[in-house]
Amino acid sequence: VGVCKQEMLQKKNAVLVDGVILNGPIMDSKAGEKLVEEACKIIMEEVVQKADDVTEKVCEWQAPETLKQILDLEMRDTGECHQKILQLCRDVIKYSVKTNHPRFFNQLYAGIDYYSLVARFITEALNPSVYTYEVSPVFLLVEEAVIKKMIEFIGWEEGDGIFNPGGSVSNMYAMNLARYKFCPEIKEKGLSGLPRLVLFTSEECHYSMKKAASFLGIGTENVYFIKTDERGKMIPEELEKQVQRARKEGSAPFLVCATAGTTVLGAFDPLDKIADICEKHGLWLHVDASWGGSALISRKHRRLLHGIHRQVNLVHGADSVAWNPHKMLLAGIQCCALLVKDSSGLLKKCYSAEAAYLFQQDKFYDVSYDTGDKSIQCSRRPDAFKFWLMWKALGTMGLEERVNRALALARYLVEEIKKREGFQLLLEPEYANICFWYIPPSLRKMEDGPEFWQKLHQVAPIIKERMMKKGSMMLGYQPHRGKVNFFRQVVISPQVSREDMDFLLDEIQLLAKDL
C-alpha cells in the first residue's frame, strides 16, 4: 500500500489531504464488474435454475453454532479475496432455505416469479430511493400507476396509497391515519388531553394490530378483541356489543380492523355487516387483506371480500386496505401496499413533515409528484416496480390464473386428506390455508380424551424436525385457540403441482411411521 501511495504522489497534480490521496477512484471497477458477473452466474446456477427442481433439498439444516463456524461470520481488519467472497456466496445459498422450492409450504409466501426477480435485480443495481421525482422519476410514476390499478380492483372510484415495508407497517399506518382523522390535533399536541381511544379487531387478527397499538401509544388494553365463530370469522353482533360497551365506559371508539384472510385459518370476516356497524357508529373501517387481498384479482373468488367497497348507494365500505402482492401473487418480499379511499390528501396531512431540503415548493417541475412526504420513511424502496413488471408481463388474466390455480390445488389437497386414513381436517377451508392433524397408527384406536390430545400435540413437531433435517419439504405447524399442534399447509407457488400435494401426504406418513 505504501509503494502505491508513493507512486500516486509522484504523479502530476497529486493532491494529499489529511493523509488521503484524492486523485482518481479508489475502487477497482474492472475487478468489481468481474465479481458481479461471477456472482450472477452462481445465482443463476444455484438458485434460479434449481428453483423448480424437486430433487433438490428445500433446506440444508445445520444447528446455529455449526452454521456460525461454516460461514466464518467474523469481520476482520483486512478484506477477503474475491474467491473467498464467491465461496461465501455459495455457502449462503447452500445453507439458506429455498423458499422458491415447490415443496416449501411453510409461510404465506413461496415460489419464484422471474419478472419480479428481474425487477429486483434492476432496482438493486440502480439503488433508488422513492421520495422525490427528481431522484426517482420512473419508480414514482410506476408506484402511482400500480396504486391506481389496485384501487380499481378494490372497487373505489378514487383513492390514495403508498407501498410500505410489510403488512404490519401498513396496519400501523392505517391505525394512525384513523386516529388522525378522529382527532387531527394529535399530530401537534400529542396524546395528552385525549379521551381513552379504543379500537376493535377480531380474536384472529394479525399480531401487528397489538404491536401497532403499543407503538402508537394507544395501549394494548384498548384493543378490544371481538369473538369469532368456529371458522375464525368476526361475529358482527359481538362487535356491536363491544362498541356499545366502550361508549358506556366513556371511551372513544375510532377504528374497526377486519381481516380478509387470517394467518392461520385463512378466514374472511363478514365485511358487509361490519361496514354497517362502522357506518352506524362513525368508525373508520380498515381491512387487513395482506393475505387475502389477492382474491380481488379473481372473478371467481373476489366474493370472499364482498363488501370491501360497498354499492354506490351505500355510504360506508372500507376506508383503508392493506394488501401484500408478495404473498399470493409472488411479487417478491417485500411488496405491500396501504390503500386509502380518501382522495383529499389525508395521508400527506397525517404524515408530512415538509422537510425543506427535500420537498422544496419552487422546483422546476410539478411537485405533486414528490410523494415521499406521505410516508413515515425517508429512504424507501421501489417495491411497486416488481409488481408492475410482473403485471405487465402476465396481464391481469395471468395473475388471476395464479389465484385460481392455487385455490384449486388447495381444494384437491382437501379431498385427498379426506380419503386418507390418519389425516383429519380442522375445518373446510375457504382460502389456501389447509389445517389438519396427522394421527399416527399408534394413536388411531386410542380413546378421545386428554391423554390422546396430549400425545397428538407432540406429533407435528417431531415430523417437522425430521422433514427439516431430511430437507424434503417445509410445512408449518402451530397450536391454536385450544387446539393442539396441527399442520397448516399453504398453496401459493405456480411451480407447485398435484404431484407435490400427493408427495406432501406421502412424506408425512413416511416420516411418522414409527411414532
Automatic annotation (TrEMBL):
Homodimer. PROSITE patterns: DDC_GAD_HDC_YDC. One of its GO terms (cellular component) is cytoplasm. Its cofactor is pyridoxal 5'-phosphate. This is GADL1 decarboxylase. InterPro entries: PyrdxlP-dep_de-COase, PyrdxlP-dep_Trfase, PyrdxlP-dep_Trfase_major, Pyridoxal-P_BS. Keywords: Decarboxylase, Lyase, Pyridoxal phosphate. It comes from the Eukaryota. Pfam families: Pyridoxal_deC. One of its GO terms (biological process) is carboxylic acid metabolic process. Gene3D superfamilies: 3.90.1150.170, Type I PLP-dependent aspartate aminotransferase-like (Major domain) (3.40.640.10). Belongs to the group II decarboxylase family. The modification N6-(pyridoxal phosphate)lysine is found at residue 327. GO terms for molecular function: carboxy-lyase activity; pyridoxal phosphate binding.
